[in-house]
Amino acid sequence: MNKGIVVQIRLPRDCSVNIPANLYLGTHWRILKGTSGILTFSTSEPVSRWNFCLRELQNRVCRLLPGDIHAATEWEVMPLERYNLLRDKEPVRIGRSWIAVPPDPLSSHTRTLNRYEASTKNIIFLSPGWAFGDGCHASTQGSVNALQYLHEHNLVRGRSVLDVGTGTGILGIIAGKMGARSVICMDIDPESTRVAKGNIRRNGLDATVSVTQGTLEDLPPGKWTMALANLTISVMFRMLGRIVKLLNAPGVVVMSGFKSTGRGEVAKLIRSYCLEVIWSEEHDGWVTSIVQKNRKALSF
Hints:
Blueprint: E1 5-10, E2 30-32, E3 38-43, H1 50-64, H2 67-71, E4 74-79, H3 80-88, E5 92-94, E6 98-101, H4 106-119, E7 123-125, H5 138-152, E8 160-164, H6 170-177, E9 182-187, H7 190-202, E10 209-213, E11 224-230, H8 233-246, E12 247-259, H9 263-272, E13 276-283, E14 286-292
Parallel strand pairs: 6-7, 8-9, 8-11, 9-10, 11-12
Antiparallel strand pairs: 1-3, 1-4, 2-3, 5-6, 12-14, 13-14
């Protein structure tokens, strides 16, 4: 698997600035051909140096672009695997059992798809856009494995699922494919909700999976049997209590998005809401856990 990161810098619309030829010279970055209006850089430096490299690029862009242009840029940092998916539209393996393919891959990837279909029917169509959740990140991989674990224990089919911070809708879509009775995909970001709606439609799940833009305060308590929460640790600390209130007993939460170095903090958070970890795994330093409100009520 290719390792590295890619940074895409979206310039303001109708930007007529001339990009300096020395923007990236003398740095650890190389420039890639990309879409008009988007600067694309990549580095193959090891993970331990990514933060340094990002600061290096940010400082260079800040110095060389006019101030008003720099202030209006939008940055996206992604694994090289995600960039390859967007550029080459190659299928991506998600977790141990699922495959994400671009919306219309059959013309150029029929042979590849047939090979995947020979071993699994767990395929979703996914167009990430600028939303989080292309399947490449370790926290998404762990979340999908957690869903698979619950599915194998008959805890997804026929259940009501809430996907908090849905991004591309990837987790909600997989829950819908697993037979969930209803799935609500929620996000505060309008771009994410737009992307998620498109992906749900591509997978033919409009009758089961829906999208709403808003906050948890907009939802009635005690309605869902499962919540999917692939969130940053700071957001998890703010929202876990609200998520627990939305579950009926016995409810489960798939928690992801925190590093193994934060296990202690997260363990205290889980105990503070009288939750119990029933499954956990670590992937590339990122931890995913399934927690529940009342273990005795679950059948394994």
